[in-house]
Write a structure and sequence with these properties.
The structure is a single chain. The chain is an all-alpha fold and about 210 residues long. It has one domain. Helix content is about 50%, strand content about 0%. It has nine helices and no strands. Helix 5 packs antiparallel against helix 6. The longest helix is centred in the middle third of the chain and has 15 residues. The radius of gyration is 16 Å and the shape is globular. It starts with about 35 loop residues before the first helix and ends in a 7-residue tail after the last helix. The relative contact order is 0.17.
Length: about 210
């Protein structure tokens, strides 16, 4: 799959990285789980086990994202984005990151990516269950499979006959694993540039207008 082989229209209100005109729609405030990173950390303590840096009480999301980007562990910006965004927004962002890294994606992952893309456009239970089945029974936990698991755990029952709720931290952890495992496939010298592009894709989610 080349970056333009599957032009994916993002969910309503999200910035679109496809096309050559550079036009982007503005993301809604509801792209984020909470108004501030501090509130996110208070609600999801799992995040503090993954990121050493802590947000200040009044620090906004974009400022914290840029602080993580400039830190000695800029990959933390990926983890923060995965947790900060609403599940559907986080999956869409992960999908767009992987489109930018299409040269690192296997043929099996391309098929999984199609299921993820369908769910982000038509996020009903049928499409979610279809992605969930493919991800849960995949022989290897590849980047796209992690993204499929994020779809499975994005909300609602895990399967039609399994009403047990899924802990809310599982979807963002899967998105985080998807993006970082995709990044790890790149050559060491290439990773900083790719990571910067992933964070550039994340930044509009944190802007308010």
């Amino acid at each position: 799959m080349t970056p333009n082989s599957h032009e994916k229209t993002p969910p309503a209100g999200l910035p679109y990285s496809g096309g050559d005109d550079g036009e982007k729609t503005q993301p809604p405030i509801s792209a984020l789980r909470f108004d501030t990173p501090y509130a996110l950390y208070q609600s999801m303590p799992q995040l503090s086990r993954l990121i050493q840096n802590r947000p200040q009480e009044q620090e906004d999301g974009l400022a914290f994202l840029m602080r993580l980007r400039a830190s000695t562990t800029p990959e933390d910006a990926v983890t923060f984005t995965a947790f900060a965004a609403q599940p559907k927004m986080a999956v869409w962002w992960g999908y767009e990151c992987m489109r930018l890294a299409a040269d690192l994606i296997s043929e099996d992952d391309r098929r999984m990516m199609e299921l993820v893309a369908t769910w982000t456009t038509y996020p009903d239970d049928e499409n979610r269950f279809r992605a969930a089945r493919a991800a849960l029974y995949a022989p290897v936990r590849s980047p796209a499979v992690f993204l499929g698991l994020a779809v499975a755990w994005s909300g609602g029952a895990i399967a039609p006959n399994d009403p047990a709720p899924v802990p809310e931290h599982r979807a963002p952890r899967a998105v985080n694993s998807a993006v970082l495992s995709c990044l790890s496939k790149a050559a060491l010298s290439d990773r900083p540039v790719r990571l910067a592009r992933f964070i550039d894709l994340a930044a509009p989610l944190f802007r308010t207008y």
